[in-house]
Amino acid sequence: MTTTRTTKEWQAADAAHFLHPFTDFQALARKGSRVITRADNIYLWDSDGQRILDAMSGLWCVNVGYGQQALIDAATRQLKELPFYNAFFQTATPPAIELAELLAEVSPPGFEHVFFSGSGSEGNDTVVRMVRRYWDILGQPGRQVIISRKNAYHGSTMAGASLGGMTGMHAQGGLPIPGIVHIEQPYWFENAPDGMSRDAFGLLAAGWLEDKITEIGADKVAAFIGEPIQGAGGVIIPPATYWPEIQRICDRHGILLVSDEVITGFGRTGRWFGSETMGFKPDLMTFAKGVTSGYIPLGGVMVGERVAKVLIEQGGEFNHGYTYSGHPVACAVALANIKLVRELGLVERVREDVGPYLAAGFEQLQAHPLVGEAQTCGLMGALLLVKDKTGRDGRGHAFDAALEVGMVCRAHCFANGLIMRAVGDRMIIAPPLVITQAQIDEMLALIRRCLDLTWAEVRTPTSA
Ligand SMILES: Cc1ncc(COP(=O)(O)O)c(C=O)c1O
Question: Which residue ranges have their beta carbon within 6 Å of ligand 1?
């Protein structure tokens, strides 16, 4: 239980003791944190009583919205009955077994097994261990290299941050660890040559994987990993041609294909998994976040039959696992969460109702003078703020990064009761899947107001 304090008191104690993730500690102490005290449905309230529309679902995770009694009851019941037991020594608990069974049911065909972790980062650590082990067992220990992409996000552990392609993260702590290499991302605005269609660019960008495999030698490559849609990188939605071509390249070279579904899993894109929306069939899928709607930490890896068969039938002991692999309370909450997603028909709702509704709203925002690109997939969306919209096949030109236009916009969102995230000059959203059409209208009106305020602040006489 927490005590009741004033905002100033919370901020002082916060600055004195709490080192926040991805934060300049001193700068935050000067500004003071916004202290979030409660939430309901898609709204948060801060310690000053201001209501905020949470267009980011916490951190891409509160898919069923806040305050769902079924999840609260599941946690409470499990905490009373069996708050913890491990799965190491020939033991298991009913929630972990039932969740494994249910995950196999909602996953695409061919996924019958799961390895549990406590987070998405740990899930990706498991991926690294597992794909290298797979090739060891098959007598090809030379296949060690995992290919990932620049501007990817796969977590913040040593392996997760190494798989990710964030230069800021690699600059600290001696990353990436050996055996992980990166290719360029399929980001049309930045990386497509002039005059090239999106579809042609998708094929070109996928070809960068083949180039890298040729350079390294296929007999040294274990796997390729990617987010179906890069989330933390700025909701980069690849052209429709990209993923099927990646699949063909992996198949051609016998390389394992890993889909990091930590954001895109559990309905976010209008299918249970983003790889289904993007039209490819991975061998492994990392998940976390939406599996419990973030009510309690849980992650893991869905292991497809190609890998599972080798690990199970030929692998002997797999020397890997976490204390909280299959934590019974987390698994009980996940079971309640997935059942609720089904009961409410959220995956279909995203695909057929609120997803298309959001897409139509974003299309209208495209006309705003600041917006160069407005894209959505299911309930993920990005607005690219540009200096002008002429030239470069209609792509226009980016603002000078030093102006931090995204941060200007984010500050207006903050002040106007809207949580929207800025990744460079890409303003991104991923609202709870329970959002209604009326609430999307409310969110779009807030976004438009914040765009207008930003435009008034950053427009120059030469702006289009
Ligand atoms: C695609 C992806 N993978 C992995 C992670 C890491 O998950 P966690 O923060 O639970 O470790 C994230 C977190 O945002 C993510 O977006």
Answer: 119-121, 124, 153-155, 160, 227, 231-232, 260, 262-263, 288, 299
